[in-house]
Amino acid sequence: MVKEKRTARGIGRPLVIIFIILIIAVASFGAYIQWGGSGLQQWAGSLPVVSSLVGDNESAGTEQQTEKVIEYKARVKEQRKKIANLEQSVNGKEQQVERLEDQVTALQQRLAQQNGEKSTETVEKKGNVAKVYAEMPPQNAADILNQLENNEAIHILSQLKPEVAALIMAKMDKEKAAKLTVLWTGNSQ
What gap in Å lies between CA 91 and CA 100, rounded to an integer? Predict the structure, then answer.
């Protein structure tokens, strides 16, 4: 009986060791298939028992990547359309700004031309007014100049010949004539 126990123990140990080695080999083979060999993974996927262990993770990952690529391409296409629309809008605004700048330039030229015409007309009118005062009797011209603002009176007097201006100032109010003289000499410097 002692011999039988030893024999049963002697056979059991090698079987356990073989079983453990077999499990380690299958686990190593499965790990290699899963993470290492794509060709081996396809071959193992065709075996009935191993196919459930191997799975088709690589093709699922590839499908997800393909879907993401398609999604990103769609986003890029949409963003490019938005950029094209914005560029078109900017170009339209730039053209509008150019038209407005041209209008402003034209208006400025027109205004300058009108101001030039007005200043020429004003000088001519003031010259004509001075001629009118020169033709008036000195007393009448003095009475009118007494009523005008100092700057306007000086401008008219400065357009007259000195002899005519002297005759008119001699007939003006003495205080007004004195103020005009001070201002006039200040202007001529």
Answer: 14
